[in-house]
User: Fold diguanylate cyclase from Pseudoalteromonas holothuriae.
Amino acid sequence: MINAEQMSAVLAALPDPAFLLSRSGKYVAIFGGKDERYYHDGSNLIGKSINDLIVPEKASWFIDTIARALDSQALLIEEYELSNQDVKGLPKQDTTEKMWFEARITPLDFKVNDEDMVLWVASNISQRRRLETQLREQSDTDLLTGLFNRRRLERELSYHFNAFKRHDYCVSILMFDLDHLKALNDSAGHHAGDKAICKVASTCQKTLRQTDILCRFGGDEFVVILPHIQKDKAIQTAQRLRQNVKLAFKGSQDFGLNTITISVGVTEILASDPSYTQALKRADAAMYKAKNQGRDRVCAQ
Ligand SMILES: Nc1nc2c(ncn2[C@@H]2O[C@H](COP(=O)(O)OP(=O)(O)OP(=O)(O)O)[C@@H](O)[C@H]2O)c(=O)[nH]1
Assistant:
């Protein structure tokens, strides 16, 4: 058996900090937190209250979380963001990177000063969160253009289709495709074709508003979601994209004698659409109409 002195040495040596917190948010004791890569010395917190130390919008979350753990009488696991500037008395961080923690909160079966208590063990998970964010961004991004890819497009379409059904706001969809890219690939090489795809992407990105969602659908096809835009306005946006792409390529030496234009299909999500796929099919059909009518034009359905 170890004695009380050894026990407190063990608790002090714990790499993650463990806070003994009362229901009202008072720091009654702090153990561990020895891993200096991730934690500051918290001994000066003892006797103080979360409400006095942490910015109000976050302090109320801490107090609510303690109450939830106590009321459920079960281990509660939560992830939260807490930066140095959120806590009084901590040195200013020299980066703007967010600090994330995982808390494991255990209700205790004794009171201190007549208050219920929890043990709040915090682990710094910032690295894992950064990696998760990076992976999510990579899996949503088209490598060639840096735009959202088809996987992200499907998610955005699903979100906007559901919002359309619930809140009855309008959503338009554009689908466009480069004209005669094969001829450019054949005459100037695939690298020139890649450059043309990127130039179209950046021209359209500059033309669209921040709330519009531009995605590379695949190959030389792109889709734009225009939230809160009706079809007649969407047609105007499509015309602006078409004109700006044409202008961007005009007189450019990089693409030989090839001129790059786009053919655009426009549609609006309809109440009768059973899913966003139906609207996408309509945009696709409108785009093929534009191709068949001679390209470098906009058609709506
Ligand atoms: N360089 C390059 N070419 C691509 C890429 N993705 C698709 N393509 C080519 O783009 C062409 C797309 O085919 P289509 O859209 O049917 O042909 P198009 O020549 O653009 O003709 P229209 O669309 O009918 O005007 C094919 O030749 C593909 O090989 C890419 O990432 N890079």
